[in-house]
Backbone:
């Protein structure tokens, strides 16, 4: 039966072509706890540590069959506080979403004086941790940490460090290093990127003197010799890669970049228990442990109240290192927004003035604009508005069919029966395509009994 | 010549019947998701990631690559026929393409898009096979100052090229930039211009804005002129295919679009949209009849369509050689590599030659398949325009609403769609071009981030933008492009050319 795998592949291909969810996987996962859909929000750009955590979780949860579909959403920026704000605002009370978090977000909350903190989410568990490395391009004149420190002492502004979002683990490491070697905090030139992927591009292109990130994010390039690792923030050289620690180079510095997951606020007791179950199953699985090992992440599982206490102590520790950005510096460093606003108001008023002038110049000779067809305009506008207001309550099919009919009549159609037929047919087939085949949720409204959602 | 023999080995992998089938599945899926607004190749590949557990890597990547390219083909179809961009990289296609479709040249617009995509995809894939290591060096040399300057060039090039009057173009662009400020401040995560509405913390999604400005704004505009307007939609005038003249006007934009799209696609923070905007601006400047722009110039379809496909191939360069994802779709491909335990990067070519070259060869195969799939469909697609107007516009609105809704699955998105649609209608009524708004909204946040980084690297001083040769040259180009119309206006007694004729 040499051809067997080919047939299997052909069947799968057919299933993919028909957009059909594979029926075989349901039977396998029936004995496990089935949790339906799960969204994991990675509050950083693709390629970074949080993104990798989310994608490994996605991989393992799917392999375990714990969740039917796992989607990863990237919301980058501002040390994850943008992701935190969006997560809290859009997922409140929902037990099908997790937010990847970590030390970076703890300090982001402190530095940005974020209106949303860890008090606004439901802590689930700490999962893993990673040591930080300082790297330079292979062509860099800095051969050792001592070279870099000497340059930093001599000319701190010209020695730039690239890393993740402002106030994150990477910046904490740089600031701790600067403090240890006697360089003032305000002289440190730290350039923030959204995630390790972009910092990697910056250091490979030598746009920064050195870059700081988790070992995993630079490992491939360190091994291939494109980047030179100067120091690792581990307490000793227990790892499988030969990088000198800060300690053995005379700098008293260790730092662990831990990562974990939190859930939305206002969860029901059952929803909380469900997510604890999902994450516990994940952390105990061999696939997860293997993935941690493969990436060089330490297994640091810690859940529930212990994790909550840990979060509080980390917040206190970070607040001692990272200062909140003052209101004064905030307003003084917003050139882009200000130029945009002034430019918009200026050019708009210029256009308006010139319009007035051209009207005056034309005088009575100006051709009066053609009277708009107000009735049709209002009908179409109200159809669009109707969609927005009623889709959640009445459901997608009825709302869009109704607005289809209104628009068709506004455009002069007088064949009501034909319009109704086409409207219902089109709305129903679009609904089927999106919900059944593409896996996009549309509000079922009055058809909810038949759809059996969630 | 080991590259050529590796490529030949790659074709031996890609041309097996099973792999051809996977490629076919990929391009069909890609075309389908390209047509649907709101659903893109990144989401599709994310949904299909479980395939990696049951299929060998080469087959999966051949399918994923087909989806990536296919989406670029499919997105242009709705842009041209319905003025509803299916992907953000096909927004600028709608500007000239839809005008062509209204004038009965929809077939030609679709054909130039399909053939241009094929030409660009093939040349760019060749570029990927031959000069990936070199290109990646150039891409890494781009610092934040250069990115910022490049975006400013795009602003200047496009704004002066779109619409009749530069001033109106700038007002539209700045409106887009203002909309791009809405949300959380990238420097500190504080709410900015959200007026206390939590929904706006997410910012304004460019895809919803594109659908609102183009599809909803257009529908409102047409409705308001019912009965007063004799500008009827002509489904087909002349040949369905491209005429000799259209061929001769298309081939140079295809090549120029490729030349822009491939290297810019390879930039780690470039994206597929930037080269399409630059290509549009370039084509208008080089066109024999620039006055046709805004009224259905085929160059304005051929160039950007070639650019977006070429950029898709370009995005694979940093992915395969460095493991750096340059786009959302490339990030999904990276995730797929990791699921197989493969590490894209300098060692991938050496360790997995059959996989890498098989995928590269399958890009050629997929491109040819897309051409064969799309050209016969042109006749069928064009018939969409023969649908009675009431049903056509009602259908456009239905598809745009479902597209907008599926972006986040929230009815607030539909409310935003209504508001943006109203803005689009007002802009049309007052004679302001709409495409610059989208450009501002898409590229504005990118420009802000890059500027912030450039200033940080340069020690908080704006002089860094002018002392780095790359960014200085680019900013000079931008200044020349942006200020030239103003000089023309100051020097010559032609006030009307600056403000334009208006509505």
Residues:
């Amino acid at each position: 039966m040499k051809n067997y795998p080919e047939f299997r592949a052909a069947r799968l291909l057919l299933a993919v072509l028909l957009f059909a969810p594979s029926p075989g996987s349901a039977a396998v996962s029936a004995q496990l706890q089935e949790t339906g859909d799960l969204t994991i929000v990675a509050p950083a750009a693709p390629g970074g540590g949080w993104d990798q955590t989310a994608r490994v979780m996605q991989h393992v949860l799917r392999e375990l069959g714990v969740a039917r579909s796992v989607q990863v959403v990237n919301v980058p920026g501002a040390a994850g506080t943008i992701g935190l704000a969006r997560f809290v605002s859009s997922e409140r009370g929902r037990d099908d979403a997790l937010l990847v978090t970590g030390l970076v977000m703890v300090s982001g909350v402190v530095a940005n004086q974020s209106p949303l903190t860890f008090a606004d989410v439901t802590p689930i568990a700490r999962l893993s941790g990673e040591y930080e490395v300082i790297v330079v391009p292979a062509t860099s004149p800095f051969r050792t940490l001592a070279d870099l420190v000497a340059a930093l002492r001599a000319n701190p502004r010209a020695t730039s460090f690239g890393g993740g979002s402002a106030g994150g683990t990477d910046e904490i490491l740089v600031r701790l290093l600067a403090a240890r070697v006697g360089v003032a905090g305000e002289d440190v030139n730290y350039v923030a990127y959204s995630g390790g992927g972009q910092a990697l591009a910056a250091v490979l292109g030598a746009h920064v003197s050195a870059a700081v990130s988790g070992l995993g994010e630079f490992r491939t390039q360190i091994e291939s010799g494109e980047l030179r690792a100067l120091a690792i923030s581990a307490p000793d050289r227990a790892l499988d890669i030969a990088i000198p620690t800060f300690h053995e180079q005379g700098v008293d510095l260790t730092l662990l970049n831990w990562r974990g997951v939190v859930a939305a606020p206002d969860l029901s007791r059952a929803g909380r228990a469900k997510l604890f179950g999902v994450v516990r199953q994940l952390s105990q699985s061999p696939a997860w442990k293997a993935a941690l090992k493969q990436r060089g992440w330490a297994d640091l599982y810690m859940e529930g109240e212990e994790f909550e206490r840990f979060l509080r102590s980390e917040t206190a520790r970070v607040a001692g290192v990272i200062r909140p950005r003052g209101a004064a510096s905030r307003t003084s460093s917003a050139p882009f927004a200000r130029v945009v606003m002034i430019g918009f108001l200026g050019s708009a008023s210029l256009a308006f003035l010139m319009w007035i002038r051209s009207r005056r110049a034309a005088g009575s000779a100006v051709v009066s604009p053609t009277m708009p067809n107000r009735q049709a305009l209002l009908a179409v506008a109200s159809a669009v508005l109707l969609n927005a207001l009623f889709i959640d309550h009445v459901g997608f099919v009825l709302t869009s069919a109704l607005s289809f009919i209104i628009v068709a009549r506004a455009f002069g159609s007088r064949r009501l029966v034909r319009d109704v037929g086409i409207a219902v047919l089109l709305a129903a087939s679009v609904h089927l395509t999106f919900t059944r085949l593409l896996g996009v949720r549309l509000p079922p409204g009055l058809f909810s009994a038949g759809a059996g959602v969630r | 010549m080991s590259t050529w023999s590796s490529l030949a080995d790659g074709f031996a992998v890609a041309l097996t019947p099973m792999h051809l089938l996977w490629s076919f599945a990929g391009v069909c899926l890609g075309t389908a998701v390209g047509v649907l607004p709101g659903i893109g190749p990144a989401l599709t590949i994310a949904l299909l990631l479980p395939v990696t557990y049951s299929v060998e890597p080469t087959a999966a990547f051949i399918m994923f690559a087909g989806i990536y390219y296919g989406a670029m083909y499919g997105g242009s179809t709705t842009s041209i026929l319905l003025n509803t961009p299916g992907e953000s990289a096909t927004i600028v296609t709608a500007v000239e393409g839809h005008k062509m479709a209204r004038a009965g040249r929809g077939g030609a617009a679709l054909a130039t898009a399909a053939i241009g995509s094929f030409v660009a995809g093939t040349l760019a894939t060749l570029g990927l096979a031959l000069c990936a290591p070199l290109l990646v060096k150039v891409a890494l040399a781009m610092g934040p100052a250069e990115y910022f300057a490049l975006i400013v060039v795009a602003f200047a090039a496009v704004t002066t090229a779109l619409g009749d009057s530069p001033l109106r173009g700038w007002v539209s662009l700045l409106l887009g930039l203002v909309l791009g400020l809405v949300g959380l401040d990238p420097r500190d995560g504080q709410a900015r211009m959200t007026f206390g509405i939590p929904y706006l913390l997410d910012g304004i999604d460019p895809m919803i804005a594109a659908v609102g400005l183009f599809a909803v704004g257009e529908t409102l505009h047409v409705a308001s002129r019912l009965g007063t307007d004799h500008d009827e939609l002509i489904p087909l005038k002349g040949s369905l295919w491209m005429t000799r003249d259209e061929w001769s006007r298309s081939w140079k934009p295809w090549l120029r679009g490729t030349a822009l799209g491939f290297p810019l696609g390879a930039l780690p923070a470039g994206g597929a949209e930037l080269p399409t905007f630059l290509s549009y601006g370039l084509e208008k400047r080089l066109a024999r009849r620039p006055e046709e722009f805004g009224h259905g110039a085929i160059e304005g379809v051929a160039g950007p369509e070639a650019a977006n496909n070429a950029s898709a191939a370009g995005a694979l360069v940093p992915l395969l050689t460095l493991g750096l994802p340059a786009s959302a779709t490339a990030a999904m491909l990276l995730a797929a590599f990791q699921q197989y335990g493969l590490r894209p990067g300098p060692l991938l070519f050496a360790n997995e030659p059959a996989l890498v070259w098989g995928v590269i060869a399958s890009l050629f195969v997929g491109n040819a398949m897309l051409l064969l799939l799309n050209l016969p469909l042109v006749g069928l697609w064009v018939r969409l325009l023969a649908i009675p107007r009431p049903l056509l516009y009602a259908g456009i609105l239905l598809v745009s609403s479902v597209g907008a809704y599926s972006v986040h699955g929230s009815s607030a998105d539909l409310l935003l769609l209504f508001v943006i649609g109203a803005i689009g209608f007002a802009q049309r009524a007052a004679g302001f071009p709409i495409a610059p708004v989208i450009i501002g909204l898409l590229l504005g946040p990118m420009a802000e981030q890059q500027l912030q980084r450039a200033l940080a690297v340069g020690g908080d001083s704006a002089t860094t933008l002018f002392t780095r040769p790359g960014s200085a040259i680019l900013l000079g180009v931008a200044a020349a492009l942006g200020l030239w119309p103003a000089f023309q206006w100051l020097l010559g007694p032609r006030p009307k050319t600056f403000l334009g004729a208006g509505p």
User: Anything to note?
Assistant: Residues 1-34, 326-332, 448-454 of chain A have pLDDT under 50 and may be disordered. The longest helix of chain A spans residues 335-362. The longest strand of chain A covers residues 122-137.
